[in-house]
Specification:
The protein is mainly alpha-helical. The protein is built from 9 helices and no strands.
């Protein structure tokens, strides 16, 4: 069985410089940041950048993989600490906040909400969403006819709408509360759900 050749020290340094430069450029300009500018910031040629990261998507994934992995780990933490409906609510709020706060992350998280082949980062988010959604459905607090991809698509739309409104946590919470009022599982003839609190906190939980 063959093993990949270890990366030379100078190649490792170039890769690390590129990732540092990419994170800075994406934070300033979003996912459309110039790849030539990233190479210049890293002090390498464009050819070196493309040898390490053949596509923009590959560079985005490498630059933000730690942040996406943290979202996956956070979902697992919440599922252990909270009832399923509350865990899903809190995790969706954090996903929306990350989408707004970390410029360039939107396309990676959005890939989990589409039917197209997902990136590695999208797979992490989709897998976490699937586990949280299934737990909430088994608990009976989330309607059974919504899929993880559909819920992520709605959350992605909430992040975009909240960003237009300034991206504050209360704006995210307000929109998320309205969404959760719509997807909460309720017994027949139950009274209509209460409106999300005006302070925008994510109190419209699935419970």
């Amino acid at each position: 069985m063959s093993h990949p050749r270890p990366m030379r020290a100078d190649a490792r340094r170039n890769r690390e410089r590129l990732l540092t430069a990419a994170a800075s450029a994406f934070a300033e300009h979003g996912e459309s940041a110039s790849l030539d500018d990233i190479a210049r910031r890293a002090g390498v040629g464009s050819g070196t950048l493309y040898r390490h990261f053949p596509t923009r998507q590959a560079l985005l994934e490498a630059a933000y993989s730690a942040r996406v992995d943290a979202l996956g780990e956070r979902g697992e933490e919440l599922s252990r600490a909270l009832p399923p409906g509350e865990a899903l609510t809190e995790w969706l709020h954090e996903v929306c906040a990350a989408t707004i706060q970390v410029r360039g992350l939107k396309s990676l998280l959005g890939s989990a909400a589409t039917d197209a082949p997902m990136t590695a980062c999208g797979t992490v988010v989709y897998g976490t969403a699937t586990r949280l959604v299934r737990s909430a459905q088994e608990e009976g607090t989330l309607r059974p006819d919504i899929t993880p991809a559909q819920l992520l698509r709605l959350a992605h739309g909430i992040a975009s709408a909240a960003e237009l409104g300034g991206g504050e946590a209360r704006e995210i919470g307000r929109y998320l509360g309205w969404l959760l009022d719509g997807v909460r599982q309720r017994p027949p003839h139950a009274p209509p759900p209460r409106t999300a609190q005006q302070d925008g906190s994510p109190t419209g939980t699935l419970s």
